[in-house]
Hints:
Blueprint: E1 5-6, E2 9-11, E3 29-32, H1 38-42, H2 45-49, E4 54-58, E5 61-66, E6 71-77, E7 80-81, H3 88-91, E8 97-102, E9 108-110, E10 113-122, E11 127-137
Antiparallel strand pairs: 1-11, 2-11, 3-6, 4-5, 5-6, 6-7, 8-10, 9-10, 10-11
Amino acid sequence: xxxxxxxxxxxxxxxxxxxxxxxxxxxxxxxxxxxxxxxxxxxxxxxxxxxxxxxxxxxxxxxxxxxxxxxxxxxxxxxxxxxxxxxxxxxxxxxxxxxxxxxxxxxxxxxxxxxxxxxxxxxxxxxxxxxxxxxxxxx
Length: 139
């Protein structure tokens, strides 16, 4: 008998980030992340056990969340966001979803199926969402 997988998407709630002073310096900035909900930290017990770091990219630059000591690092460049340069046409063009990028250390499996954590992005406005899908095995 062939097993069939039924995926579904569920958004993992990630409350807004740390209170960093403005303007942001062009070097990594570390700050305590008490503003991130306890639900978020509780959801990443596996990440803590495996010493994983979670990355997120948004309008302010690239964030590195460290569950081990509950800190964030915001990476920027002196003249703008870190990353590849883009033409004005590409930046001002609305786009759809792209990704996903699987966060392998958080992926789990058991006798009933798999849970996959990944990021899914929209282009304009640029937002990265942490997602999870449960793929259940059917008898």
